[in-house]
Amino acid sequence: MVCETLPALRRQQSIDAVIVNAENADGGSGLTPSIFRRLLKSGVDCVTLGDHIYRKKEIIDVLESSDRIVKPANFPAEAPGRNWTTFTTENKVPVAVISLIGRVFMKPVDCPFRAAERVLSEIPDDIAVRIVDFHAEATSDKYLMGRFLDGKVSAVLGTHTHVPTADEQVLPKGTAFQCDVGMSGPHESILGRQIENVLHATLTFKPVPFTVAKSDVRLNGAMLDIDQRTGQAQKITRFSLDSKGAELMIGDDEIDD
User: Is-catalytic flag, 160?
Assistant: First the structure.
């Protein structure tokens, strides 16, 4: 869905940079080098991940060699991958990308708030545009991170819960925030998986495969307008594009293609 629709979306909306969380890209769990390369070819500038980061061990070489992908910065120092990275847009604007992971219902990790402080101290001052993907379960954690980093980064965007939230806003000091940008994938599902199998496992405790669903495929995300000089966000807009490319939801408005 991303690879098929992103080139046209970039043209139609005059998008300068694209960051995606791709931790579920390979059959719902993990990322492979071939899919990573497809994403870059389709117009993705940088990839973040999350708790499924190492599900496909072949991605480790990419994490260690590519500057277009990051690990959560509050993972152990020995974990493969970069704590942060940068890329430059076509109009020569540098963009820093940071990934953090929450601690509620996740594997034990270091404090994401202290990790954010550490990483921000390493990023050169002349890189004003700074985007944070906070991959977390609890909405309270995400709001805390947004307020903690307000005025220090351009955006704190939540991922992991797969459901787009309608709380997009620019915080008082200029940081764009959304609790979860949603899921690119099949929405006739339970978080991307076939409904029947998830229900069966929940009701019976019998182990069944959580097969990826196929219906009502959508591209979800958020578009940001950022002042390249100050790094402050001017606007954030959530969007949803269906698999036919015929319906684009921008904020609360439905626009025909």
Answer: no
pLDDT tens, residue by residue, 88-136: 999 999 999 999 999 999 999 999 999 999 999 999 999 999 999 999 9
The pTM assigned to this predicted structure is: 0.93
Find, among 223, 43, 218, the residue nearest to 131 by Cα.
223
Given 52, 135, 160, 162, which residue is catalytic?
52
Q: Which of 101, 224, 49 is nearest to 153 (CA)?
A: 224
Q: Choose among 85, 92, 34: nearest CA to 62.
A: 34
Radius of gyration (C-alpha) of the chain in whole angstroms:
18
Topology at the third CATH level for domain 2-182+216-247: Purple Acid Phosphatase; chain A, domain 2 (3.60.21)
φ, ψ for residue 60, nearest 5 deg:
-60, -40
Domains of the chain, by residue range, sit at: 2-182+216-247
Which residues pair with residue 255 across a beta bridge?
A: 248
Burial class (CB in 10 A: 0-12, 13-18, 19+), 139: middle
Residue 101: partners with Cβ closer than 8 Å, 6 or more residues away: 50, 51, 72, 74, 75, 109, 112, 134, 135, 136
Report the candidate in 79, 78, 101 with the shortest Cα–Cα distance to residue 23. Answer: 101
